[in-house]
Amino acid sequence: MLKEILKILEGDARITAEKLATMTGTQVAEVKKLIKKAESDRTILKYKTMINWDKVGDEQVWALIEVKITPQRDVGFDAIAERIYRFPQARSAYLVSGTYDLAVLVMGKSMHEISDFVAQKLAPIEGVQGTVTHFLLKRFKEDGEILAGREETKRQPVIL
Fold this sequence. Notes:
By secondary structure, the chain is of the alpha+beta class. The protein folds into 2 domains: about 1-40; about 55-140, 2-Layer Sandwich (Alpha-Beta Plaits), CATH 3.30.70. It is about 35% helix and about 20% strand. The protein has helices spanning about 1-10, 15-25, 30-40, 55, 80-85, 110-120, and strands at about 60-70, 90-95, 100-110, 130-135, 140, 145. Helix 2 crosses helix 3 (about 30-40). It is flat and about 60 Å long.
């Protein structure tokens, strides 16, 4: 039942406990209790609103940065990864397989701001061997939501 509630919340964080109870066939009090416990034990980390900033005209530049690092004795990649993900520019950070060790998604107001972040904050970290920056040119889909594409044309019916 908790998994079902979490899947519904993941798709719509604004859904009410009453509606969740109806959808899952659970008592409202039980739904509220499960949600409160999931919040307190950090199963639910955050409620999030997703904004298409392009529609607002607020330019944001996103980049995926691959980072090659030297693992540290006893802590592996974790200590350097923590230093990197603590920067406010780092929106997501992942340990990955392949040529590079970390994939870091960063956001800035301009390409210059992101390049300064890489040159002045990321690259100088001890243990960082190299980086490759990929600027995201267009977002089509994010977090399961389609952002760009053909918009449906709404036509008036033709009456003959």
